[in-house]
Write a structure and sequence with these properties.
Chain lengths: 197, 311
């Protein structure tokens, strides 16, 4: 159980390296996908604690885990960019609370089923899941980009085609990573690793 | 989608246990404060931290960068095969076009150089010149075709020279845009010339430098040493000197220039130099074989003197 945290740190590290050294050669009109943000979103969104019914009390463990992801992901983004330390961490804090609010108040999953979320994802209709995930992801990404442009790049907003390409490119990779995550977490119990339980 | 979404009143849930809820919020606030302090600390020392991180990860970054480069090149070749072929074709065409431009520019540079030389050479003569290019050489008839004709103000018998004032010949036929030049080596061509003795000039200089009786009369001696004759063409770009009196003293290496007496060619245009002399006491005139100064095969730019005949 404790092994998942070092693995997540290594994953964030590798994705950050890929993002700055491998993916620039596959940039589309200068747009490079934000893999660290995508992994952060997946870990936050598919965290079972985040889908608790709003009438239920959230546990402190949820916040510890969420802040762990925020610090690691934000730290990696800040280290490998020209931003000051803490900028991405603060932005990801905002994104975390945004995801939490959206999924808490609009998600129709009974409380007793939320804890089964990771295992039950494989039984849901994939298309519905992908559409739902993609909508939340796009909202999160738009808010993240707006935060960046307002606080860092104002008033040089990107052109519409570039903004559209940025959303599409990140969304495509996010869907791929969601499918990979779903494949990893929905293995039969006998063969499933207990890392993420 | 409806399986996941529902409408819900946006009311905050009432905490069941106020004490535990406030404790949770206290912990959150403390955690946030600690987080802000850590961020502040890291910001102060961000330069050495980032530097250490880049130093430690640079080998991995290089590996990923090279992998990205090679993968990108491979995929680019796969997907852009057709466009690369077209791009290659376009580059070849552009290369040929640029080579042609370079050749044109080089020709223009040669022309400019020739104009500069002739301007310097004819500075005192004030001739009106038209530049032309030799298109072909007919060694059988000793003539060349140039790319200027009646549209350019060219008439028959106009002298044709090079940028270094070497006489080539005269215009023999004029067409609308081209003209034929009869070289001075053409059979039956005759040009009145004068021979500048090179050795006598040097002897005069030596005597005058010794302070002898010829001192101060060098020009007169040079004029007295000038020998008149006629250069005739023998065909195949060859010339010979004729009609030089047997009494006149000429030497190998003497320079032959036009005399201007027949009023066709201006004076002092270079023709050639003497190679060998054929002197026979039984004949009234002596002859000499000449080395002509004009070189048709390496000449591109020629000049036609258009206003000499009018003077």
């Amino acid at each position: 159980m404790w092994l998942k945290y070092p693995i997540i740190i290594v994953l964030f590290f590798l994705l950050a390296l890929l993002q700055i050294s491998f993916l620039p050669y596959f940039a589309i009109t200068g747009v490079v996908p934000n893999l660290v943000f995508v992994l952060f979103f997946i870990l936050i969104f598919f965290n079972p604690n985040i889908h608790k019914n709003s009438t239920q009390q959230s546990g402190i463990n949820e916040y510890y885990e969420a802040f762990f992801y925020i610090i690691i992901a934000g730290g990696m983004l800040d280290i490998f960019s020209a931003l000051n330390f803490g900028t991405s961490i603060l932005f990801l804090c905002v994104i975390y609370f945004l995801i939490r609010i959206i999924t808490s108040y609009f998600l129709k999953i009974p409380a007793e089923e939320t804890l089964k979320m990771p295992g039950e994802i494989g039984k849901t209709k994939t298309v519905h899941l992908l559409v739902y995930v993609s909508v939340i992801f796009l909202i999160s990404l738009i808010v993240y980009d707006l935060l960046e442009y307002v606080f860092l790049d104002f008033p040089h907003f990107p052109s519409r085609p570039v903004f559209f390409i940025q959303l599409s490119y990140n969304l495509a990779l996010a869907m791929v990573m969601v499918m990979i995550y779903q494949g990893i977490t929905n293995h039969p119990k006998k063969k499933q690793l207990t890392l993420f339980r | 989608m409806n399986a996941f979404l529902k409408r819900q009143n946006l009311r905050l849930p009432l905490p069941k246990s106020p004490n535990s809820n406030s404790l949770t919020w206290q912990k959150i606030i403390i955690a946030l404060v600690i987080l802000m302090l850590c961020i502040g600390f890291l910001t102060i020392f961000q330069s050495p931290i980032k530097n250490t991180f880049y130093y430690a990860t640079s080998p991995l970054l290089n590996i990923f960068k090279e992998a990205g480069q090679s993968t990108s090149t491979f995929l680019g070749g796969l997907f852009n095969g057709a466009s690369k072929t077209q791009e290659n074709k376009n580059l070849k065409e552009e290369n040929q076009r640029l080579l042609s431009q370079i050749f044109t520019l080089q020709e223009n540079a040669k022309q400019y150089q020739a104009i500069k030389e002739i301007a310097q050479a004819t500075q005192s003569d004030n001739f009106k010149l038209v530049i032309a290019q030799a298109l072909n050489l007919d060694t059988f008839n000793d003539s060349i075709i140039i790319n200027k004709g009646s549209d350019d103000g060219i008439y028959e018998n106009m002298p044709v020279i090079s940028s270094t004032k070497v006489l080539y010949g005269k215009i023999s036929k004029v067409y609308k845009n081209f003209s034929q030049v009869a070289l001075i080596s053409k059979k039956n061509s005759v040009v009145d010339v004068k021979i500048y003795p090179v050795k006598s000039a040097s002897q005069n200089e030596a005597v005058s430098s010794e302070g002898g009786q010829f001192n101060g009369v060098k020009a007169q001696d040079a004029a007295e040493n000038t020998v008149l004759g006629a250069v005739k063409g023998s065909g195949n770009l060859s010339l010979y000197l004729d009609l030089v009196s047997s009494d006149s003293k000429i030497n190998e290496g003497d320079t032959i220039v036009t005399s201007g007496l027949e009023r066709i060619f201006p004076k002092d245009l270079l023709i050639g130099s003497i190679i060998s002399i054929d002197k026979n006491d039984l004949k009234p005139f002596q002859t000499a074989r000449l080395q002509s100064f004009f070189d048709i095969k390496s000449t591109d730019n020629l000049f036609i003197i258009t206003d000499y005949l009018k003077r």
